[in-house]
Amino acid sequence: MAVGIFDSGLGGLTVLDAVEKRLPEVPFVYLGDNAHAPYGVRDAEDVYQLTTKAVERLWEAGCDLVILACNTASAAALRRMQESWIPSDKRVLGVFVPLIEALTERQWGDNSPPREVAVKHVALFATPATVSSRAFQRELAFRAIGVDVEAQACGGVVDAIEEGDMILAEALVRSHVDALKRKMPDPQAAILGCTHYPLMLDIFQDALGVDVAVYSQANLVAESLADYLDRHPNMLGNGVERKFLTTGDPKLVSARATQFLRRQITFQSA
Amino acid sequence: MAVGIFDSGLGGLTVLDAVEKRLPEVPFVYLGDNAHAPYGVRDAEDVYQLTTKAVERLWEAGCDLVILACNTASAAALRRMQESWIPSDKRVLGVFVPLIEALTERQWGDNSPPREVAVKHVALFATPATVSSRAFQRELAFRAIGVDVEAQACGGVVDAIEEGDMILAEALVRSHVDALKRKMPDPQAAILGCTHYPLMLDIFQDALGVDVAVYSQANLVAESLADYLDRHPNMLGNGVERKFLTTGDPKLVSARATQFLRRQITFQSA
């Protein structure tokens, strides 16, 4: 049995990279729905249908534990999937949950009323689609009170990363951090709410300053998975399976993935 | 009879502004399809249906001459509309045509083979959707040979302008110009292929340098319209009608339009 990691495209590879570094012994299957990416422009029903189909594909591949390494899918589909669709012998984790857990210092399943948390001023950097969804602010409000969240929609950053123009990506990140600081001069914490942004973690940290705690989803998900596997040691089998599946063109997706993570990655058809 | 100006949202107001300055006596009706904006995320059939419906609405309002002040609609729908849908007593002009005419120094209706033009290195700045459509490069290739076009998808700029953060918009424009120059160090001409960008014309010119001819669609469309009305003096009636229609919420759209053009604009329901 392996861990399934799903994303609409290649951004989830940063989550996979962090998981591999944190848990080098863990077998995994990555599934990119490149044929239907990006999800950010689709409506919620469409995202739900595509996401459940992809998760079923990973269950077929032997992954009883699936990570939705996709903010759009996590925001638009995970709550509905958890309420009525996921069988009791399977687990689906989103990229949002570990982030909210880290920020509020409480477990996701803790349904007590919202309470005050240490961090009062939070900057959220995400794609325009994730910012408009307000999913992060909504989930946070269920658990914490008195937290001021200022969101910056970082238009252009994902495109620049996908084109491989890291000079442009850095310039855009710095401009978006400046824009955020004009709205919120002293954030205590910053959330990178897009799976592409871990590639720009050092730039965000540098632009924000050393006093700002920068939360990267990739690292938090890897940490959360390590914790989960500690508590469920029989969840996974032996043998380091590493498989990359795509609904798109494997040759094209492999080339782009190799450029994206700066190491050789070979996809096959899902 | 008035000139109809159509856009999916508010960007077309820059075209309207240029038309008003060039032709202060001309009556017009502006129609923003704000209920369905942005068009950039829709497929071609969807854009065609929405655009033809909007143009019919402007015909009903007495506008026999309609300008599609929307790059997405011009790229995805205008050619098809002109081939089979527009009756002989109506005219629909897109924002692309005057641009191609200016760059190639020939009339749109001139169907002779493509030939060499003076400008060899052209920078195109547009939204990611317009860049991916390749409509500009395709139309140019019908008319000119030996022109090298380098496109820069300026992610984030429209969002920043719509949020009213002109400091961020300026920073993003400068970063995108830098990125373009890494790909094409010495462009002779630059095309602003998005109706929002005339608001950033001075920044583009400054970042590109005084030797680069910057083509703004708003000014070119106004010039082209002035030329057309010179040749068809009976096309318009008397009386300076000025009407702003929207498929969205008139109060909300009026507030955003007023911020966008920095003068009072009042929309009513289409």
TrEMBL record, chains A, B:
Taxonomic source organism: Roseovarius litorisediminis
Any GO molecular function: glutamate racemase activity
Gene3D superfamilies per record: 3.40.50.1860
Any GO BP annotation: regulation of cell shape
Known role: Provides the (R)-glutamate required for cell wall biosynthesis.
PANTHER family: GLUTAMATE RACEMASE
Catalytic activity: L-glutamate = D-glutamate
Active site (UniProt): C70 (proton donor/acceptor), C194 (proton donor/acceptor)
Functional pathway: Cell wall biogenesis; peptidoglycan biosynthesis
Family matches, as HAMAP family: Glu_racemase (MF_00258)
The protein's name in its UniProt record: Glutamate racemase
Keywords associated with the record: Cell shape, Cell wall biogenesis/degradation, Isomerase, Peptidoglycan synthesis
Binding site for substrate: D7, S8, Y39, G40, N71, T72, T195, H196
Coiled-coil positions: none
Domain of life: Bacteria
Family: Belongs to the aspartate/glutamate racemases family.
Enzyme Commission numbers on file: 5.1.1.3
